[in-house]
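User: Please predict the structure of the protein below. I'd like the answer in structure-token form so I can feed it into my own downstream comparison script.

Assistant: Understood. Taking the following sequence of 760 residues as input:
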Amino acid sequence: SPCSSSGVSSSSSSGLGADAGLEIRTRSVEQTLVPLVSQITTLINHKDKPKRSDKTLQAIQRVGQAVNLAVGRFVTVGEAIANENHELKEEMSIACIEARRAGETIAQLTDVASLDHPESDSHITIFTDKTGVVKAARLLLSSVTKVLVLADRIVIKQIITSRNKVLATMEQLEKVSSFQEFVQIFSQFGNEMVEFAHLTGDRQNDLKDEKKKARMAASRAVLEKCTMMLLTASKTCLRHPDCESARINKDGVFHRMRLALEQVIEIVTDSRPNGENEMAPISIYSGIKEFKNKVEGLRENLYFLSKENLSTMLEVILEHTEDFTDSAYTSHEHREHILELSKQAKMELEQLVSVWMQAQNQKTKDLMEDLEVAILKTCQCMNELKREVHSAATSLAADLLKYHTDHMVLKALKITGVEGNLEAVAEYTCKLSEQKDQLVEMCRLLRHVSGTEPLEITCIHAEDTFQVTGPQIISAAETLALHPSSKIAKENLEVFCEAWESQLSDMSLLLREINDVFEGRRGEKRVYLSLPRPGKHNANLKALKPVRLDTEEQAKIAKLGLELHLLTSDVDSETEKWEDQENEIVQHGQGMSSMAYSMYLFTRGEGLLKTTQDLFHQAEIFATEGTKLASALHALSDQVHDDDKPLLLLEAEKLISMCKQLQITAKASAQGKSATFTKVDACILKTRNVMTLLCQLLPLCCKLLRKSKAGNGCLKPAPPWKEGRIQTGTNARAPERRVDTFGIKSLENHVTNMTFLESK
């Protein structure tokens, strides 16, 4: 869900428009409306030919009926949501009634296929009352949008409820005094964090506003890293209750997690504490871009802004260049060039203003040519300034990242801490503080040249991470030096050091991204994060370094990943229809769907599967689960009628063959970047094929089982809209699942059913 608050004004040439007072902030709501708008537009924009074929009349009638049927199913889901959420019941019920009424009106007006003269006044139809269709269409679009936006409010409520549970458990964790109690509560906390991560991950992906999406990614990255820190910092505090540095270390983690949780809620609810407005920091890049737009706008209009406006804009840009010229880390050469270009920019603007003022009084050909030259020279100077600050920031970043790549200070802190050498630890903590200051300054300068708002936010997040993690490493090192034989204090220092190393690694990726944007190769930001991993809190984190597909590879595999995602939804939908949820076939199906969803998230650079090796391991487990399902199918074949047995056994053999091929692919060796990506692509493709077969198998098995039970049935009605339905996989890695608790997906599916006649 990315969150630009574009109002719900989906419109067409027919004058369609939804209620402008509603605000759509998520892609899921927006995209659910697209097929509906398309179908209605098809009806309203039909060509008014004097002669209409039977085929045309039948197509119009079928579209009208399809719209009405899909709206009917859609409304049924909306009414179920209303019954489960009393605070929205009245609003939701009204919107559902309006939608149903509008759908029926459209069906009546398009009931033309059986009429001899559909344009006759004796029967009101789409041909005789086009205004009536437009009115019904407006009402339908507005009411469906209301239902979707209200359902979306329930998703927000669920995220807030989940956050509140996490906060309450965190308070308990802060107060515990025994290991036994801590372990028990932390287990609960881990489950709550996984639920919160799933909900916020879905929300992040669905937000329309890229800036909010980046802020959400940053907050979730903090929560991911802090989950492990909270565990080791709390254990260290419990082991050494009288140690002041251990307490400071733990308090820092809790404080940072609370801030991150608060920011997530601010983004989700689109609010700020005490009603304050968010002040976005101005970067040199964005300032130059806006300044140039204004200058170039003078070609079209000499009077749309004042010379004071333009002068103020340049002053702000030049003030920001002082971040570079005042920095101790900017080279002498860069500093001199920036100062020279700043001086030149002022001169070029003076010349521009002089010609501009003359042109306002006397618009001669010569003056307009002079103005064009002044505009070009001013913009060229700003481009050179932009290039110079970019070079200063990125060359500093490259040098610092190269210099600190050996992590010598961190290694020395670990060694001197285990030795209990307080004097040496104090010496290296000073060096780490210096390193922190350098990296913080690097992030500030990179923010000015990042080129996009999401990348700016990533720079701010990186700056905060270095600012906070540096002192936390120092307190963890001091604790170890005071208790050199403490295994938990040693593990705690390791965790904070790894967070620092991980952020440095992310900075290398970010620097490459910033250079790509500058050179025009890419404008989208990759999100460097994954979901928390409670239950995996071992000390062997080095084996789990995040190595993901790069942006280009993600783009190549995106379509395949999306197909896999849709198939997981289909499988989930089929398994929910079974009355016996403990049935072995259902259990295996749910487990396979859960794993396939994790593999889909990997294609997006998200989720628990961090490396290609994780993906291959998951593919093996998926194939094993598929083989177990095939065994269950063989067992079912003994219960069904003889006529049905060959078909079931044939499908089981197909499944076994596909799973064997997937296992062979997953186990095959692959050397090099290209070969590894080819293997990833093959694994996802073969997983998709298995899931396609699974979508066919589940309804077949249910039908055969029902037939064999002679009417007892294995189907059940759709589950009520309850909060907190969390599915878990059956495999040991417990991949996360996107939980469609409040039915946005169901609403989407019902509206999507309208698309089958879109081309008519």
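That's the full token string. Residues 161-269 form a domain with the Four Helix Bundle (Hemerythrin (Met), subunit A) fold (CATH 1.20.120.230).
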